[in-house]
Amino acid sequence: MFKGTAVTIALSLALLGGNLAQAASEFNPQISLILDGRYTHYNNESDYELPGFMLGGEAGRGEKGFALGHNELVLSANIDDLYYGKMTTVLADHDGATEVELEEAYIETLGLGSGASIRAGRFFSGIGYLNGQHPHSWDFADAPLIYRGLFGEALRDDGVQLSWVAPSHLYLKLGAELTRGAQFPAGGAANDGAGATAAFLKLGGDVGASHSWQLGLSHWSARIEGRRSAGHSHDGGATAIPAFSGESAISGIDAVWKWAPNGNAGTRNLKLQAEYFVRDEEGTVVMDDGSVAPESSRYDGRQSGWYAQTVYQFMPRWRVGLRYDQLGSDNNVPDPVVRAESGLDDEGQHPRRTTLMLDYSRSEYSRIRLQYAQDESYADNDNALTLQYTMSLGSHGAHRF
Amino acid sequence: MRRLFTLFGALWLLAVASPAAARLNLFACEPEWAALAAELGGERVTLYSATTARQDPHHIQARPSLIAQVRRADLVICSGAELEVGWLPLLLRQAGSPKVLPGRPGHFEASAFVERLEIPQQLDRAMGDLHASGNPHVHLDPRRLAQIATALTQRLAALDPNHADHYHQRQHDFGQRWQQALSRWEQRAAPLRGVRAVVHHKDWVYLFDWLGMVEAGTLEPKPGLPTSVGHLAALRRELAREPAQMILHTAYQNGRAAQRLAQMNGSTVVELPYTVGGSERAGDLFALFDETIERLLAARQ
Ligand SMILES: [Zn+2]
Question: Which of A61, A93, A350, B77 has the highest CB neighbour number within 10 Å of its CB?
Answer without folding.
Answer: B77
